Amino acid sequence: MTEFLQKAPHQWTAVESVAALKARKIGALELLEHCLERRARLDNEVNAVVELRAEAARQAARAADAAGASGPLAGLPMTIKETYEVKDFHTTAGIPALKDYVSAEDAEAVARLRSAGAVIWGKTNVPVAASDHQSYNPLHGVCRNPWDTSRTVGGSSGGAAAALAAGFTALELGSDIGGSIRIPSHFCRVWGHKPTFAIIPGRGQVPPLGALATSPLAVSGPMGRCGADLELGLDLLAGGAPDSGWVLNLPKPRHETLSDYRVAVWTGGNPVDPAYAEAIEAYAAALAGQGVQVTYLDKTPAPLIGNDDLYIALLFATIGSGVPQAELDAYAEAAAQHPKGSLPDQVARATRSSFAEVAEMVERQAKLRQAWNAWFTDFDILLCPVSMTVAFPHQTEDGHGPVPQMSRVLEVGGVTRPYMENLYWPGIATLGHLPATVRPLPDPVRGLPAGVQAIGAEYADRTTMRFTALCDAVFGGFVPPPGFA
After folding, report:
1. Which of 60, 255, 386, 413 has its CA 20 to 30 A from that of 435?
2. What are 215-231's pLDDT values in tens digits?
3. Closest to 384 measured CA to CA, from 465, 272, 467
């Protein structure tokens, strides 16, 4: 307790904040006012928190203080990703047609956090329809990376990651279908967990498919400032509703000692900046120095062989099922500028998939999941990149209007790559329904933060998070960006 109390409250992890609240070292109202003051002073530069309900939050914080800061979150001030329904807040996903929509109730995951004692005071920025690796939209503008405001925070949980890095909140609720928790965590030097599919309720999010429907890929999950924060968040968020008829019993971590873990390292197969790949391999070597059994893979993991097109096909079949005809036509028009068989062509064709085609994809996905289950008998963790590179400069307007994603490119180690190839690395865990935890690498890459993805077997969420927490103890914890200390 004494050690972390030497830090400013905005540098505390969620676990440390809750400990301080429960020990009455700080009050819920006092901590909330600290967060609100920082947001007012520092967020103009970042634009992470796009709506707040300060007075309602103050009332909740006063009630938490009066009750003795009870509950697992004990009056912890929190922001929530804008796509989630939060009572009395707008929920728009950055879509202009939804600009006047105000939520009448909390999303199921939000309600769980609130019932645990969270004091929800703001909502964080996202891309339009939560579908980009940059977070900007016509309603709320561009969210900028606290580490370098000329660069993206990632997306779609970009405002959430920026708020964590900048010291506005210690815990966030994100969602992920194309790396939307993991890429912002990687770009902003925070922690994030993409859970095993369907263990956390996604009901009450707009989009991808509305308040009730579920896609075969999308998940909700916690974001924080250390591995223990993610464990705290998952414990509160995961499981069936009391009247749902099902109970979740996640296995315990496979190991409690770092040196007992069997880690496979793979940085090949998909495009990746060589400097980033080298940083991951150096991290793996440092793990080996701690006694971890490290294996460097020189070929593609067996479950992925023959499935290189499946993630993109299923992802954009899901996206295409929920967009109007005009957007489908726009996909086709953009793809027409590229060769047959190219990534844009694959995307455009996938958006018009038939039910029979989707059923065939889901069957292939089930076989891949089975193959991963077998693969993870030999390894506990697959360590790999989160994306192709570190945070890149904003690509929002080119003087002629918005830049379509299928027309964008990224510089990856001096090579120009299609922007949408940034989906490949996060797609590994998404397609396999696998848990994946992201933590920062110890050293920057090209002067910017970089994270690493620890993927585990299906339902081995506690294994990937505990591995991450054990790494935190060795390699260090949260570091704020310059100017936000």
Report:
1. 413
2. 789 999 999 999 999 99
3. 272
